[in-house]
Design a protein that fits this description.
Elements: H1 22-29, E1 32-36, E2 42-46, H2 49-57, E3 61-62, H3 91-102, H4 107-131, E4 135-136, H5 137-142, H6 144-154, H7 161-171, H8 179-202, H9 208-215, H10 225-256, H11 258-266, H12 271-281, E5 289-293, E6 297-299, E7 302-304, E8 309-312, H13 314-317, H14 352-369, E9 374-375, E10 397-399
Parallel strand pairs: 2-8
Antiparallel strand pairs: 1-2, 3-5, 4-10, 5-8, 6-7, 9-10
Family: Belongs to the cytochrome P450 family.
Region (Disordered): 1-23
Keywords: Heme, Iron, Metal-binding, Monooxygenase, Oxidoreductase
């Protein structure tokens, strides 16, 4: 493939709920494909299930995306989800960090939060109903619920959620913001968190940041003050941004073909598998997961030299016919459903049980409260968010 033929990445979707056409052709004919990133740098895109799972599980594929020869994802440095790795956060240190953070995301803790999550969802839906149809499900429920949940978990005022939204977007920017805007926003975010940590240190509460403050320094200095701030920032962003977007996409997918919604109305036991299938079927997930190769590795019969940057498309992998029967169809009864939406291996999403609880709860409340819910515009007219590393819909107009 000549330099002129290397496609720009991310690819365009035919519509907000349809996958890029390149996924299928690459899975069939070029599973390790050269791509050009927004920065102008080149990387390799992996689109098959087995290859993506192999790379995400292999410690030789690292998160050291600040290496001198690593491809830059964006032209601007956002300080975002792909640039929060630290030299002290690999191997044993990373495992210890995961173990500590994981205590705040235990099934028991998430289960204990479920009644509050359901009550908040019902409150948000009630407010949406009072305002009347048509309504934008994204701004009415999809955005405020996960922000409230992660703020509750971290002990951060929910009243600051609009500021979090802006700070998050700058961290996740590919082309949306200038470097000056990104730098200013990240300094504001860091200053806010330093003040919040100081306040929690003075008056600890029953929240995750208070717990993290207690263990700073307990790992022979491995969980430093810097890592505490970085962790808090990452959780605030990842804890609400991806789930907020997924709520809108899930409901849009289920309403795009109303027979899906009717099946759920008839059988509530399908809520859990429907959430999993929505995660698998998501055609608009965003960038994917980049990895930097520390030594030569073979993937899909191709030898990749050390210094290679690869991008794992979990969403393309989730539509691989080699892994899923009738992968192009949305099957609400699919089981088992070993999708890769949350990643796999040592860096899989640590908050996935919380995300699943939120998605299942939203679906249950909407089915119970608004059984006549439908899209207020044709599915093909839905617009996706642009310029960010994460995927999502600008609006999901609904009526009932």
């Amino acid at each position: 493939m000549s330099v002129e033929q290397i496609p720009d990445y991310p690819f365009s979707n035919p519509s907000a709920l349809e996958p890029p056409q390149q996924w299928a052709s690459m899975r069939d004919g070029c599973p390790v494909a050269p791509i050009r990133l927004a920065s102008g740098d080149q990387a390799l895109l992996l689109t098959r299930y087995a290859d993506v799972k192999q790379v995400l599980s292999d410690p030789r594929f690292t998160r050291r995306l600040d290496a001198d020869d690593a491809a830059k994802v964006t032209a601007n440095e956002s300080g975002g989800v792909f640039s929060t790795s630290s030299p002290n956060m690999s191997g044993d240190n990373h495992r210890a960090w995961r173990q500590l953070i994981g205590k705040s995301f235990t099934a028991k803790r998430v289960s204990a939060m479920q009644p509050r999550i359901e009550a908040m969802t019902e409150h948000l839906v009630e407010e949406m109903v009072e305002r009347g149809a048509p309504a934008n499900l994204v701004s009415s429920v999809g955005f405020p619920l996960p922000v409230w949940v992660i703020c509750d978990l971290l002990g951060v005022p929910d009243s600051d959620r609009d500021r979090f939204a802006y700070w998050s977007d700058t961290m996740l920017s590919m082309t949306k913001y200038t470097q000056r805007e990104i730098d200013a926003a990240q300094e504001e975010f860091a200053e806010y968190l330093r003040g919040h940590v100081a306040a929690k240190r003075a008056e600890p509460g029953d929240d995750m940041i208070s717990e993290l403050i207690e263990i700073v320094g307990s790992l022979d200095g491995r969980l430093t003050e810097e890592m505490l701030l970085l962790t808090s920032k990452g959780l605030l962003v990842a804890g609400h941004e991806t789930t907020s977007n997924m709520i809108g996409k899930m409901v849009a997918m289920l309403l795009a073909d109303r027979t899906r919604w009717e099946r759920l109305l008839a059988d509530r036991s399908l809520i859990r598998p429907a959430v999993e299938e929505s995660l698998r079927y998501d055609a608009n997930p965003g960038f994917g997961m980049p990895r930097y190769l520390s030594e030569e590795v073979e993937v899909a019969d191709t030898k990749l030299p050390a210094g290679t940057t690869v991008v794992c498309s979990m969403a393309s992998a989730n539509r691989d016919e080699r892994a899923f029967d009738h992968a192009a169809d949305m099957d609400l009864t699919r089981s088992p459903n070993t999708h890769l939406a949350f990643g796999v291996g040592p860096h899989s999403c640590i908050g996935q049980s919380l995300a699943r609880t939120e998605l299942q709860t939203v679906l249950k409340v909407l089915l119970d409260r608004l059984p006549t819910l439908e899209l207020a515009v044709p599915a093909g007219e839905l617009k996706q968010r642009e310029g960010l590393i994460v995927g999502g819909l600008q609006q999901v107009p609904v009526r009932w």
